[in-house]
């Protein structure tokens, strides 16, 4: 496709994060152009674990049913020590999310499905098109690109998004540093055809004396991803990144050394690697923003890399659309504040998991083989514990700082900064779903609400809908004093504000979104 000489948003990089962001922006009515230096999507399986929160985001762009049709559902993670089952951590968000389970889907398929959706939109897209230079000022950006035929061209864009992965050209060109380091241990990953009597609706984490191996069932017959730490380091990459392929014989030895009931028949893609734990010093520099691996790199423990990037896209898409519609530029600062904090948290969590999984010292072996299964068994004994485990694993736990004028909220379903979870009240949940990708006001106990007129006037001014929730229905998750509560639900379904004082809400909205305005696009 011919690349235009000007565009509203130029996304550099057609990985899973750049493609998701392009679709979210297109849905919000933003004109988008995507370029990628490669000639096709990746062929390797790479990131395979699709968390429930990612499915929720994908649902707003029509991707969730496509992913579900091809992916393999994962309902639990079983912990084993030297092959023996010790504890099972359910991955079950029934009552919390419309997508209560995880999904295994190869990144090659994820990208192909996202591209099939892109083809149905107005998004302009070009392979074999590399960003080589970038200048910007307060009015916009000018990107220099080298196209398929070797020609050098410029594209003017109001905003440029670096979705160009760990070695981001955009990040280098704007002089943003990546802070953090690289782990010492080397890992292997193998996609294998294998026979086993393991139940393929679960994933497995096996702790042996000095090593940890995960067995993750992939879509397809007897198809698994095996991932673990290498016991001997030979010929591994000196730097972080992906290294040599491993042989089927070596893979068999590694699995046998971990006492796992898995017989490898043949292997497909395989690699050794060393992981980074790095976060960019900022995700925004003027009109240039970073998403996904361009902003943060962490160990694959927890399968959070791609999923965290896709949540970046959901956070950024509505803010960028609103700013292009006339909201103040400072709204984009909340993107870097909110998502960088999450990236740091993810890096710290995966750091801890990484050390726990890979450290050969005796006390860490004791922790993973004895203490961890005990904690999992204890926590998952109660419904609340299982819900907590799901929220932590699935990405639903993320909570952004709430404005000071907001009430905190009492339960996880209805909490300022947190995601608006499922309530179990079908009509309400359906009404919220119908507003996906748009601002929404939720009001509890309409009859007793003193500020209803003011709220209705505010909603009418901004062109937003109000969804009502009966106070009695709201009580289980909004607390005893559920009457007259108002929530501003952002287009990414995070609760932006919660309270009763409509003037305070109005002030907060003016602060975030500016005064009511006519759309400029
Ligand atoms: C070999 C490999 C194996 C992996 N395995 C796993 C795994 O097992 N589990 C896991 O969770 N994660 C894995 N990851 C990480 C996972 O793939 C990433 O977290 C995820 O792809 C991030 O998506 P992204 O869209 O941010 O970036 P990417 O998927 O890296 O996409 C970036 C895109 O930008 C393009 N690009 C780069 N520079 C330019 C430029 N100058 N101009 C134009 N285009 C450019 C690239 O061609 C690429 O298509 C793996 C990564 C790699 C490289």
UniProtKB/TrEMBL annotation:
The protein's required cofactors: FAD
For the FAD-binding domain, which residue ranges apply?
7-349
Q: What does the record give under GO molecular function?
A: FAD binding; oxidoreductase activity, acting on paired donors, with incorporation or reduction of molecular oxygen, NAD(P)H as one donor, and incorporation of one atom of oxygen
For this protein, the record's InterPro entries field holds: FAD-bd (IPR002938), FAD/NAD-bd_sf (IPR036188), RIFMO-like (IPR050641)
Q: What keywords is this UniProt entry annotated with?
A: FAD, Flavoprotein
Which Pfam families does the protein's record reference? Answer: FAD_binding_3
Keyword Kinase carried by entry: no
Its domain of life reads Bacteria
Protein name, as recorded:
NAD(P)-binding protein
Query: What is the organism field in this record?
Result: Agromyces kandeliae
What are the top taxonomic ranks of the organism? Bacteria, Bacillati, Actinomycetota, Actinomycetes, Micrococcales
């Amino acid at each position: 496709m011919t690349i235009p000489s000007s565009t509203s948003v130029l996304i550099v990089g057609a990985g899973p994060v750049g493609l998701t962001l392009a679709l979210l922006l297109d849905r919000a009515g933003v004109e988008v152009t995507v370029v990628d230096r490669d000639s096709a999507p990746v062929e390797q399986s790479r990131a395979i674990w699709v968390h429930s929160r990612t499915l929720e985001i994908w649902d707003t762009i029509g991707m969730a049913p496509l992913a579900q049709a091809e992916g393999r559902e994962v309902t639990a993670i079983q912990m084993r020590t030297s092959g023996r089952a010790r504890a099972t951590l359910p991955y079950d968000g029934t009552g919390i999310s419309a997508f209560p389970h995880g999904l295994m889907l190869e990144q090659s398929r994820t990208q192909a499905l996202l591209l099939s959706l892109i083809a149905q939109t107005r998004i302009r897209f070009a392979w074999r098109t590399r960003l080589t230079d970038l200048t910007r000022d307060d009015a916009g950006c000018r990107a220099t690109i080298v196209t398929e035929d070797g020609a050098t061209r410029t594209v003017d864009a109001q905003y440029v998004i670096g979705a160009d992965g760990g070695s981001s050209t955009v990040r280098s060109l704007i002089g943003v540093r990546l802070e953090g380091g690289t782990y010492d241990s080397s890992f292997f990953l193998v996609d294998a055809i294998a026979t086993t009597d393991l139940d393929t609706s679960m994933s497995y984490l096996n702790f042996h004396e000095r090593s940890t191996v995960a067995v993750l069932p992939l879509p397809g017959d007897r198809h698994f991803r095996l991932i673990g730490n290498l016991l001997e380091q030979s010929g591994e990459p000196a730097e972080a990144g992906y290294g040599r392929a491993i042989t089927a014989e070596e893979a068999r030895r590694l699995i046998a050394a971990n006492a796992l009931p898995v017989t490898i028949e043949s292997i497909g893609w395989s690699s050794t690697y060393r992981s980074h734990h790095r976060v960019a010093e900022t995700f925004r520099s003027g009109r240039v923003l970073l998403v996904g691996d361009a902003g943060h790199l962490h160990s694959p423990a927890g399968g959070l890399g791609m999923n965290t990037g896709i949540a970046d896209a959901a956070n950024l898409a509505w803010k960028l659309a609103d700013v292009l519609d006339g909201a103040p530029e400072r709204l984009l600062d909340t993107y870097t504040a909110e998502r960088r904090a999450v990236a740091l948290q993810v890096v710290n969590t995966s750091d801890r998991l990484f050390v726990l999984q890979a450290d050969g010292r005796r006390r860490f072996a004791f922790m993973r083989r004895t203490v961890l299964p005990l904690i999992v068994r204890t926590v998952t004994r109660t419904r609340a514990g299982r819900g907590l485990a799901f929220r932590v694993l699935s990405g639903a736990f993320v909570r952004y700082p709430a404005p000071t004028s907001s009430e905190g909220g009492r339960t996880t379903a209805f909490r300022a900064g947190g995601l608006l979870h499922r309530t179990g009240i079908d009509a309400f949940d359906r009404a919220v779903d119908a507003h996906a990708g748009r601002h929404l006001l939720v009001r509890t106990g309409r009859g007793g609400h003193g500020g209803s007129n003011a709220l209705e006037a505010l909603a009418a001014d901004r062109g937003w809908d109000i969804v009502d929730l009966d106070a009695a229905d709201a009580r289980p998750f909004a607390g005893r004093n559920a009457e007259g509560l108002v929530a501003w639900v952002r287009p990414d379904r995070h609760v932006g504000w919660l309270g009763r004082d409509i003037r305070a809400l109005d002030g907060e909205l003016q602060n975030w979104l500016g005064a009511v305005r006519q759309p400029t696009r």
